């Protein structure tokens, strides 16, 4: 069978001879098995050339007679595998783009039949393309390789999955430090109204900047793909106080999970945040501002000229944080970002004796479900009426 494509540094090696890191030079024998033949490059080349001359002099004829080349290289089926994976798993645009890039690497590297790919080939591939990657990125790339090989097994092009034999690297510890109450209050006090509104909503709802940037002042009813306020005609009372309506949050990150549809009571605290967000700017969004001059007023990421791209909310938070110098003793990559407001909120909720998991929209949460009609029934998770206190 035709040898796989060589790395530049190994182009002088004879066919079927491979260099295995920390082991030596490995020769693939005519019976399909591989054997380490030497630690010395020159000696290994001499042995491989002689072995190939004696044992493989008629290899091309043998391949034609046995039809052993009919399967072709794995690279020939990678595109069709990606098509199947896309149909089965419906990845988002960003993930699909990543898959496409990784698929091109696979097509360039794995030019041998799938059944000939070994753990050594996987190791060399990962070293070649992802040697300097972080542990988390390295593990994601290895998992992608493992998934593609599983599909290749399903289609009969592989009998084993060598990527599954590769040990993943240990997960890296989170570099960013937790946000504390004192720093939150200092940043909030120095923030412009729109950022202060976003921070307050994340603190009270525990939800991330993407959902907060999409909250609308008024919705007729809860709808998938939208976040917003559904106001009662008359305020209602429960044991914890007055409820003015419901804040429907559809978490985009876990959109296929039933717990991604969350209904949060609009109590006095949340209503005050929403009321205080109103200014002279007419906008359907609670977190809003007019675009800067000479900037494109709309983009694919927003639906209205006054809506703020979620990334810009996070960026402004970091700018205010650094201007105040509250975390300047830490390296930039260790300083808490906007996202850490969620963690602070969850800790405060837990300190008040509540379970924050349901409110955060985690899929393993357990709570009463509210059914809302819009073409079909979708389960929305009703969470308790509570106010997150900064003074625990």
- Which stretches are low in confidence, meaning pLDDT under 50 for 5 or more residues running? 65-70, 254-259, 361-375
- Give Rg in angstroms: 29 Å
In total, how many domains does the architecture comprise? Answer: 3
The count of strands amounts to: 9
Estimated helix fraction: 25-40%
**CATH H-level superfamily title of the largest domain:** Intergrase catalytic core
- Assign the structural class, choosing from mainly alpha, mainly beta, alpha/beta, alpha+beta, or little secondary structure: alpha+beta
Give the integer mean of the pLDDT values: 84
Written overview of the protein:
The protein folds into three domains: 1-70, 2-Layer Sandwich (Double Stranded RNA Binding Domain); 73-173, DNA polymerase, domain 1 (Orthogonal Bundle); 181-382, Orthogonal Bundle (hpI Integrase, Chain A). The chain is built from 13 helices and nine strands. The chain has a six-stranded mixed β-sheet with strand order 4-5-6-7-9-8. Strands 1-2-3 form a three-stranded antiparallel β-sheet, with helices on one face. Helix 7 (181-190) crosses helix 11 (310-324), helix 8 (193-205) packs antiparallel against helix 10 and helix 8 (193-205) packs across helix 12 (340-351). By secondary structure, the protein is α+β, with helices and mostly antiparallel strands.
């Amino acid at each position: 069978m035709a040898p796989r494509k060589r790395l530049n540094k190994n182009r002088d090696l004879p066919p079927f001879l491979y260099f295995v890191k920390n082991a030596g030079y490995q020769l693939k024998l005519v019976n399909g098995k591989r054997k380490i033949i030497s630690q010395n490059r020159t000696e290994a080349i001499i042995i491989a050339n002689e072995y190939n001359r004696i044992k493989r002099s008629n290899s091309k004829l043998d391949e034609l007679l046995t039809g052993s080349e009919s399967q072709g290289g794995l690279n020939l089926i990678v595109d069709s595998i990606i098509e199947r994976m896309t149909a089965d798993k419906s990845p988002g645009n960003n993930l699909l783009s990543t898959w496409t890039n990784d698929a091109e690497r696979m097509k360039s590297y794995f030019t041998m039949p799938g059944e000939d790919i070994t753990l050594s080939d996987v190791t060399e591939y990962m070293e070649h393309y992802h040697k300097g990657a972080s542990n988390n990125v390295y593990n994601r790339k290895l998992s992608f390789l493992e998934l593609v090989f599983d599909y290749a097994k399903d289609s009969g092009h592989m009998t084993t999955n060598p990527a599954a034999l590769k040990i993943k690297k240990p997960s890296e510890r989170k570099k960013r430090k937790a946000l504390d109450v004192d720093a939150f209050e200092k940043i909030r006090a120095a923030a412009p109204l729109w950022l202060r509104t976003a921070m307050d909503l994340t603190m009270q709802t525990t939800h991330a900047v993407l959902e907060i940037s999409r909250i609308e002042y008024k919705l007729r009813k809860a709808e998938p793909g939208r976040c917003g306020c559904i106001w009662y005609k008359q305020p209602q009372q429960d044991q914890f106080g007055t409820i003015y309506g419901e804040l429907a949050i559809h978490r985009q990150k876990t959109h296929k999970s039933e717990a991604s549809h969350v209904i949060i009571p609009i109590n006095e605290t949340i209503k005050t945040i929403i009321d205080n967000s109103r200014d002279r700017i007419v906008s359907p969004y609670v977190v809003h501002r007019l675009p800067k001059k000479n900037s494109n007023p709309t983009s694919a990421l927003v639906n209205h000229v006054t809506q703020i791209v979620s990334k810009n909310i996070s960026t402004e938070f970091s700018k205010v944080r650094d201007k105040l110098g509250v975390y300047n003793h830490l390296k930039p990559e260790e300083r808490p970002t906007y996202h850490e407001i969620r963690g602070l909120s969850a800790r405060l909720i837990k300190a008040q004796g509540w379970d924050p998991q349901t409110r955060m929209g985690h899929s393993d949460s357990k709570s009463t479900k509210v059914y809302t009609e819009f073409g079909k029934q979708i389960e929305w998770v009703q969470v308790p009426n509570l106010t997150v206190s900064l003074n625990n």
